[in-house]
Amino acid sequence: MKLELFDFIDETLDILDQNSDKINEVALELEKFFNDSFFIKDHFLNVSYRIKSPESLKEKILRYNLYIKNKTPEELLRNLSDLIGFRIECRFVEDELHIYKDILELFSIEEEGGYYSNHLNSSILLKLDDKQPQKQKNGFKIYRKYKKNSIEINFELQIKSLVNVFWGEIDHKVLYKNFNYMLTEDFFRDIMSSIKDNLTMIDRQLMILYNHLSDMDTSNSFKKQSQ
Asked: Which residues contact 154 (CB under 8 A, 6 or more apart)?
């Protein structure tokens, strides 16, 4: 069984390597599309992406028993929803909903299977018939989309404010990689809840500060004199 598992993983990673150029090409196309579509929005900051690395894919196969749920390596890669992970970044948690509404407005052409396309690039499809927004295990709201184009490469799209970007890095690089924390799960749950509350407060404070600064930057001569 172990030999079969190792062979399955090795074959999956080989296929990933063979298609790396094609995956990179799709990632660059998507990055340009989202940047071009949202750069004029005041609440939009940046688009970033990562392609699933061989090490990360191997870990996911083992962690979630994907070698059991998929009959072949080709089927596994075809069903993998986050082969490419995209993140649209915005300033505040409140702005996540603004970006989501922008996406709904852009992807307005209904296709089969609950997917929606847009008039700028018909090869990009988002699955919008699922309940949105979805939630991660850490409790922060995100919006997940999936894409299939002519070469059938899936991607996952997240919308995250600055504090949620920060939280995501903590969750992934500090906790997700630390398997031992499950031994004291209640303790970690309390600490993480406290961190989440503090980040929510920071988000609100930053938004108040930003709105105040925006109000100061006005053409009203009386306000300028007062400032």
From this structure: 78, 80, 81, 82, 83, 84, 146, 147, 148
Which residue type, as a one-letter code, is found at position 24? N
SS3 call for 2: helix
The pTM score is: 0.84
Which pLDDT tens digit goes with each residue over 131-188?
777 777 666 667 777 776 667 899 999 999 999 998 888 777 766 656 555 556 677 7
Spacing of C-alpha 194 from chain mean position: 24
Q: Could you say which residues of the chain have pLDDT below 70? A: 1-3, 137-141, 148-150, 174-185, 217-227
CATH topology for 2-164?
Answer: Beta Polymerase; domain 2 (3.30.460)
Hey, what are 66's tokens? 């994907």
Buried b (16+ CB within 10 A) or exposed e, 12-35: bbeebeeeeeebeebbeebeebbe
Domain locations in the chain?
2-164, 179-226
Burial class (CB in 10 A: 0-12, 13-18, 19+), 172: exposed
**Identity at 211, one-letter amino acid code:** N
SS3 45: strand
Strand stretches in 77-212, DSSP E = 84-90, 109-110, 115-117, 126-127, 134-135, 141-142, 155-161
Give the rounded percent of residues in the chain with a pLDDT score beyond 90.
62
For tokens 């750069």, what's the residue? 39
